[in-house]
Amino acid sequence: MPRYVSSEEAIRLLATARRVLVIGCSGGGKTTFSAKIAACLDLEFQSLDRDVRWLPGWVERDRAEQRAIIEQLARRERWVMDGSGASSFDIRLPQTDLVFWIRVPRRIALLGLFKRVFRYYGSVRPEMAEGCPEPLPDRDFLSYIWNFEKRYAPLFVKQIDEHGPTVPVAVLRSHRDMDAILNLLKNSD
So which domain of life are we looking at (predicted)? Predict the structure, then answer.
């Protein structure tokens, strides 16, 4: 079982955290939250979609090359890393001081996805690799979001148990939870 901590404890841990991992379902707000945490703490913001996974034209980078890049990024001194690829938890979790797991209901994740598509369709959003304009979601992507908690959350738990059993994990179940963390963080200066 992951080492779950409260939001209050997560705020205390953020005071000394040098490496923060943000995971969760697509559309849940993890990238926006990650970027804001990084800005508040003056940490480097790393996005697996932008910095690792995608090449222009939605070409997926070779898996071995992705892992090599993740290893380099994870060794850096101070970062907030956004990305849910459980296949690289073995690299990222041992380097992580704190995990925020965004676990919003699927209706919220789907709404977030549709808002993103509405805002960025046909253009490249700031958190995405160059040459990857926002597409309309296909059936597979919608299915990923719809089934995330059933299919992928248990894998996250297993990977956290295996590769980061002592890493504190704060679960945020709403945008209100994320906003509360950000407000507490801003007011702690």
Answer: Bacteria
- Chain CA centroid to CA 25, Å: 8
Is 189 a residue whose pLDDT tops 70? no
Number of domains observed in the structure of the chain: 1
CA angle 106, 36, 80 (to 5 degrees): 90
73: domain CATH number is: 3.40.50.300
- Cβ atoms within 10 Å, residue 185: 17
- The residues with which 134 forms a beta bridge, in sequence order, are 121
- The residue count for the chain: 189
The pLDDT tens digits of the residues spanning 88-145 come to: 999 999 999 999 999 999 999 999 999 999 999 999 998 899 999 999 999 999 999 9
